[in-house]
UniProtKB/TrEMBL annotation:
Its main location: membrane. Pathway: Protein modification; protein ubiquitination. Belongs to the Tdpoz family. Pfam families: BACK_BPM_SPOP, BTB, MATH_2. Residues 127-260 form the MATH domain. GO terms for biological process: cellular response to salt stress; protein ubiquitination. This is BTB/POZ and MATH domain-containing protein 3. One of its GO terms (cellular component) is endomembrane system. The gene is BPM3. May act as a substrate-specific adapter of an E3 ubiquitin-protein ligase complex (CUL3-RBX1-BTB) which mediates the ubiquitination and subsequent proteasomal degradation of target proteins. It comes from Mucuna pruriens (Velvet bean). Signal peptide: none annotated.
Length: 510
């Protein structure tokens, strides 16, 4: 349909392609129309190339073995109609598979970036201190090497620690010349990294404390790593003869101060995300109850009426489900009379059913409360038990535990017994069995009523007394015998030479 004339593209990259009409075709009236129809699917591409021709190289490469041609600014040829490139019998798109950008235009384009982020790791110590007083130092001497006096355990960084003081030294090799002081990990832990500071306090208040600290000096290998019952310290902490003649010992008493710093690592990053609010379903259902939209049941509670939705009540309470949709239930029921429940208690129960939260007393009473919050919760617990609302029942139990006192514990105990609340009952019994509370509780009218109405409670109370007494005796026995047992383990090598059984060796201090 047309001929082409071109020069060697490899030698003359900017030669112009000249289109010459073929004889016999230019004179046909519908020639322009045919070309337009052929190029119509590519009209958008052609228009875009015309408008943005400056972005294209003077050379367009076709596929291999096809015509290679060039063009300058697009222009309209009156004999050909809309401008097209490439042989007429080839698909128009095959003429432009690749275009090179001019070098001078490359500066206008920037590489695509997917963004950047950053994060950091922060290692720091969680510090805690413990003061250990040793009274009767002279009586502690002569225990023998490897025997120690143990402080009470104290918690730092989520782990339990203890101070061990050896009046006659930790090892027999020292011949009781030095006292030894160690700090040990007293709870289960894997590779707990920590720093320590031991201070023997100058009791003359002159400030001449003897301090061994790892906080303020560089450590070649970092913090110490300990496992369960691993320890670190000083076999030769202080020469015993000097200690006994110094101002560190006053009134046969030593005062030690220990600081432990547990290494914790946390991460901070620039992670971004979408903030998702907490669920508002409970509030939405509560609003639905208060608006009374779609209500299909009315409860008559004494002089007040409450509207609700059968489906919601049935979904939350097995009792309501059986009443409305059970074998003997009536789905067409429109009104229910409720007895033995105060209106504000029933309202509180409805608020929980819809919102799944324990309501406040001021939400359910329009005027000043007629009873205390504790009394309201007690009645609400009874209603929860009646309608099988287990979560409401547990919420009431938890609230009553928080509010327990010598004035209401007897009433709460009777309630727990009546409505099968074993956890609440056990807490009440332990509260009464406490010698500090027993006298005041027994003088209350509620306890007298409980004793008369439920004599079996007295037997359970006596059993609680016995169990509390036994536990106290066992705890005291463990405290008395724990030092010698734990001390023997340490002396036998559990933490000897201030070496963690599975950790690294700690340098010997003198």
């Amino acid at each position: 349909m047309y001929t082409h004339v071109h020069s060697d593209v490899n030698s003359k990259a900017k030669s112009k392609l000249k289109l010459e009409p073929c004889k016999g075709f230019a004179q046909k009236e519908n020639f322009s129309t045919k070309i337009t129809k052929i190029l119509k699917p590519q009209t958008r591409i052609t228009t875009y190339l015309k408008r943005n021709s400056s972005l294209l190289s003077p050379v367009l490469y076709s596929r291999p073995h096809r015509t290679q041609f060039q063009f300058s600014s697009p222009r309209r040829n009156p004999q050909f109609g809309e401008l097209g490139f490439g042989p007429i019998d080839a698909p128009p798109s095959l003429g432009f598979p690749m275009a090179e950008l001019e070098e001078e235009r490359m500066g206008d384009f920037k590489p695509f970036s997917e963004g950047s982020s950053c994060s950091r790791s922060i290692s720091e110590t969680v510090n805690g201190s413990h003061e250990f007083t040793i009274k009767g130092y002279s009586l502690a001497k002569g225990m023998g090497a490897g025997k120690y006096i143990m402080s009470d355990t104290f918690s730092v960084g989520g782990y339990d620690w203890a101070i061990y003081f050896y009046p006659d030294g930790k090892n027999p090799d020292d011949n009781s010349t030095y006292v030894s002081v160690f700090i040990a990990l007293a709870s289960d832990g894997t590779d707990v990294r920590a720093l320590f500071k031991l201070t023997l306090v100058d009791q003359s208040e002159k400030g001449n404390d003897k301090v061994h600290s790892h906080f303020d000096r560089p450590l070649d290998s970092g913090p110490y790593t300990l496992k369960y019952r691993g320890s670190m310290g000083y076999k030769r902490f202080f020469r015993r003869a000097l200690l006994e003649s110094s101002e560190y010992l006053k009134d046969d008493c030593l005062l030690m101060h220990c600081t432990v710093g547990v290494v914790k690592t946390r991460f901070e990053g620039s992670k971004q995300g979408v903030i998702v609010p907490q669920s508002g379903m409970g509030q939405d259902f509560k609003d639905l109850l208060e608006s009374e939209v779609g209500c299909d049941i009315v409860f008559k509670v004494k002089s007040e009426s409450f509207k609700a939705h059968k489906l919601i009540l049935a979904a939350r309470s097995p009792v309501f489900r059986a009443q409305f949709f059970g074998l003997v239930g009536d789905p067409s029921l429109e009104e229910v009379v409720v007895e033995d429940i105060e209106p504000f208690i029933f309202k509180a129960m409805l608020l929980f059913i819809y919102s799944d939260k324990l309501p406040n007393i001021y939400e359910v009473m329009d005027s000043m409360p007629m009873c205390s919050p504790t009394v309201m919760v007690q009645h609400l617990l009874a209603a929860a038990d009646l309608y099988n609302l287990d979560r409401l029942k547990l919420l009431c139990e938890s609230k009553l535990c928080d509010e327990i006192s010598t004035d209401n514990v007897a009433t709460t105990l009777a309630l727990a017994e009546q409505h099968h609340c074993p956890q609440l009952k056990a807490i009440c019994l332990k509260f009464i069995a406490n010698p500090a509370n027993l006298g005041a509780v027994m003088q209350s009218e509620a306890f007298v009523h409980l004793k008369d109405s439920c004599p079996s409670m007295l037997m359970e109370l006596l059993e609680t007394f016995a169990s509390v007494d036994d536990n106290s005796s066992q705890t005291l026995s463990r405290k008395r015998s724990g030092s010698s047992i734990y001390g023997q383990d340490l002396a036998d090598g559990g933490a000897a030479e201030s070496v963690n059984p599975n950790g690294r060796r700690i340098r010997r201090r003198t």
